[in-house]
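Handoff note, outgoing to incoming analyst
You'll be picking up this chain. Sequence as last confirmed:
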Amino acid sequence: MISQMIDFADVLLAALLVGAMFGVWLLLNPARRIPGLYITLHQQGIRTLNTALPAFGAATVILSVVSAVLARGQRGGFSLLIATAICFAAAGFITRFQNQRINVTVITWRSDAPPANWKYITGVWLKWHVVRLLVGIAGLSLLVIAILRRS
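Most recent structure output, in case you need it:
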């Protein structure tokens, strides 16, 4: 019963996290945005998601490790859950050392006076965001496969 509750919480948090990443990818593509609007959206995203999503990611890593420990005697389940934790930890490191580093710059911009290189900087941010999104999708996929195999 405890194992099922942990799995449920893990899938729920992982799905919310990856869903948020996907939504951000759809919303924050600088190629399709007016500079001032893009800056406003990006800054709002920083203010609203910069704390919640890393917390969801950390909780997902912890729950995946706990789930792996509980599944250590099951063929394949343990490995898939450890791989899940590694994927979400990698997404967290990308967030911390790539995206948040750029967010520190973006949060200082004025939407009525974007810097000349705003598209380049946000393009780098988007590149790292796509990488973490793909890693997050891989982690969520591994998690779902592990749980389906266990049931």
